[in-house]
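Possible regression after last week's pipeline update?

I re-ran a chain I had predicted before the update to compare outputs. Posting the input and the new output here so someone can diff against the archived version. Not blocking, just want to make sure nothing changed silently.
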Amino acid sequence: LLLLITNFFFHFCIFVHISNVNIIKYHIMVYEEMDFVAIQSRDKAKWKTIQQNTFTRWVNERLKAVDCSVNNLETDLTNGLLLIRLLEVLSKKKLPRYNKKPNFRSQRLENVSVALTFLETVEGIKLVNIDSSDIVDGRLKLILGLIWTLILHYSIDAQIWDNERNRQNQENKHKLQLPPKQRLLDWLNSKIPGFHLTNLTTQWSDGRPLGALVDSLAPGLCPEWSMWKAANALKNTTIAMDLAEKWLVIPKLIEPEEFINPNVDEMSMMTYLSQYPNAKLQPGAPIGSSVIEKSDSNKLEYPVAKMKRILQIKASGPGLQSGVISGKTTHFDIYMAGGDEKKFAIQILNPSGKSDSVNQRFRRLSGDMLRCEYTPEMVGMHTINIFYDDHSVLNNNPYEVWVASGSFDPTEWKVFGRGIQNSGIRVGDKVDVRILCNGGDADASLVEMIVKHSDGTIVPIHRKNSSIRPLKVEGIYQPTHAGVHIVHIKYDGKDFPSSPFEVMVDSEMTSKIRAFGPGLQSGVVNRPCKFTVETNGERCGLGFSVDGPSKAELTCHDNGDGSAEICYIPKACGEYAIHVLSNDVNISGSPYMVEIGESHLGCIPELVKCSGAGISEYGHVCGQRSTFTVDASRAGDSAVKIFAMDSDGMEMNIQQKTIANNVYSCSFVPESCKRHWIMVTFDGQSVPGSPFKIHVSEQTNPNLVRMYGPGLEESVRTKDRNHFFVDCADAGPGKVEVCMKNHADGMPVDVQISDCGNGSYTVYYKVNKPGQYDIYVRFAGSLIPGMPYKVQVKPHIDLSNVVIRGLEERVFINSISEFIVDTTALTKKIGDAEVSCTIRSPDGNMARCHIINEKDGTYRIFYSTIVEGKHELQVSYDDIPLTAQPLLVHAVDGHDETRCKVQGAGLKSGLVGIPCRFRVDTKGAGSGKLNIAIEGPSESTISTADNLDGSCTVEYVVSKAGVYKISVTFAEKHIPGSPFTALIEPPLDPNLVRAWGPGLEPKNCRFDLPLQFLVDTTRSGPAQLQVLVDSECGAAPKQPEIVEQAHGVYKVTYYAPAVDSNCKVHILYGGKEIPNRLANIYTYIYIHLCIY
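New output (post-update):
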């Protein structure tokens, strides 16, 4: 899809290139003010993201007062709590009683209902088409609409215009009746009049108006805006927003990137800009400074020197536009931008080049506005030059203004019709020119219409005058030759300001392309106007454009079948020219002249309901009657129009019968096997679903359709790509539709249909869950016999050996529970397969369980419940349920201390001064307080650490050895095994070990006789005792024998080494030698023995 937009007379054009029959979508190209910008087709939705972000920031700015915030408007307001807090902040009132813990849907609905009722009954805000279920169900579009209503009421209407309400003059009373957008524009133009702002989107895209606004509210805060370049739009906007946020307390409700985005919407811009009337200049603001960018970084600084202002003089007003009347005073205004009034000079020259027939005078308005009033005396083209300090200061200098005769006021006349369009007319077309005058003294006989070919040939024009006011003059002409034609519209011999009109007449054209629909006949301002284009197989490049009083939003939807649906939204009343182009040339009948008017009060086309088989896309047979119903009884008091066209643009007769007030029964009999379009309008607007596309086919017989193939047999398994065949060769023409659903939960299955080209089709599908599936096959809109066809899908892996252990049938709420899934016995394992588990609470909420893969084929699954009742656990392996039905657990409130488990060495033994640890597991035990108490010879220091898995680690330290009693209670009851007894011993210290006895005295050492001594370790912590005996001749012939005599006291027996050697006895405790003293401590024992 290619999109082309120009800014000439609000001309909007879309080009759609067609290959064969189908319309092919391309990237969108935008042409605006002579600059090309490429955007993707998804840009259509960017404004929605910007709006959601802006509204979210606006809400959070208000919720700061109560220390709350929202992250997602779609979900965070669903329980009503934040919505109620927001309304209390905005209204400064307390809302009625509401549920502060809305766990159930009914409670959430009740909360939201409290908020909406408060808005309507207390605040007097009218809410349309929204109820509490829309908020609870997270319907984002309606939620954004509600937020916009709050912004309008509390931010724009209630706050911004308070200063204007205090003024009692009639002008401001009139302003209060204007729409919010216009009031905001009026205020902005009063602050920065030189920009002549007419919208809140495109005119702000380069950042300069925002910089000017900041500088206007705080003169000297942003004086360099006048030097900014449009190419630096993001930088400009960022500087202005940063200054406004820091010094004027204007929060960034919209980011700079969003502010300059061409897709930004007016609501987001109004939300941000509406803060400026309440701007408050902060102390210390750098008034008189400019913001420049450092050369060595991206940070901004404020230099002391004041930047010299470059004048941005602008001029506007009726006196600079054609249509001025001779003898009548007119004016235009000059925005001086800080210039000296005395240096301005105005030169107005009449058609003769002289200024003596023009009376002019200056007078100063408020602020920087200077008004020039003049009264031209001559008829014809006048030239106006504006000088400052003897220099021409405006790019538009000189202005050319047509001055008309005093008896002819062109502002009271309007010229319409296809006959003045510059393109689209063909030889032989009968085209019209219509002239409408609202003046009271206009004379139709003085209106002259002349049509000439470029060769001077006069084309006859048949005219018709109306004497009824307002005065109408209509002329119809039929060109007979191709080429340029000139259309003169004169009054009393003088051309209208826009006359003459140049019209290009093309030669006759043959094309299969047809355009039709209500949007080519009439429409309503600010409402979608729709029409349809059928290419009928013609290969071409389609284009669409809209010319008229305003720029119109235009979108094109490719139906993928050689047709397209076009929608445009005009922003002002008047006549529009709708161009439908084929290869850049208007098709026959284009441009279509459409009159756009106002909607009738109280008419709501969205409430019109169309129903029945007659508007279904398929199921229509040539020559057979189809019916449908149109119910407009609730939509208001206006006319319903129903008509239908086929793809060739031929109208199909629809019979209507009134069955109730504004309720109609409609029927039709299609006479051709073509695509038809049924269009229903109410109050000139398309109703929901219109136009309805229907396909008319020859008579078919769905009973002759056959189905077969492996995808319908018992061998179907999950994860496999299965297929079956649908044979329609004998059933006649018709479209095949296949729908496949899970029988248990109704979830659809993605299917692909491949046309084999011989009247048969191959249907492919793949399912992930085993179970029964239902297949529905439709042919020509009707189900074939035997539907639904039931297919039993088996798992692609045998899970009968998977074991679930430790699952309790009764669990406690607000407590973590655990069970294990053991897959070690699987005979066939899937490489990337994992165990998954979901839990469904009694109120319907779904949650995923936390799973830890132990990497040994087992999985630990953790879950918790918050409400009482039966919960369903669905455990799956590789998306295949392990059980035919979900596992049921019953959650209750309470606790059970016997489910607590404790383990660790610190429950039995430990060392003095060394942390002793054990672990307490309360998973599945319910809610309760865990207490740890330790009693013994000394006080103990206890600390705990939460393991975040339903268990905690306990660590304690004691200062004296002895027996300690450890009590572990849960909910004030001892857990199994409590109290525990732990023996705490001194820490290991070889210096505290004593050794003595005859075996350590030199006089007692004899060869080949047992030598004995004692070792006392009771004062040291537990460790291994070792004794080594050797000499310079080698080790002793026997290993020493160590026997424990009492707790910590050992008797050692050894044999001395060879005769005449020095015997060395090494006593090691905990791998370290004890001191060489009989009663005290030395490094080692070194004994000299004399052997006899």
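Follow-up from reviewer: compared with the archived run. Confidence is low (pLDDT under 50) at residues 1-44, 160-176, 288-310, 1077-1092. Marking as no regression found.
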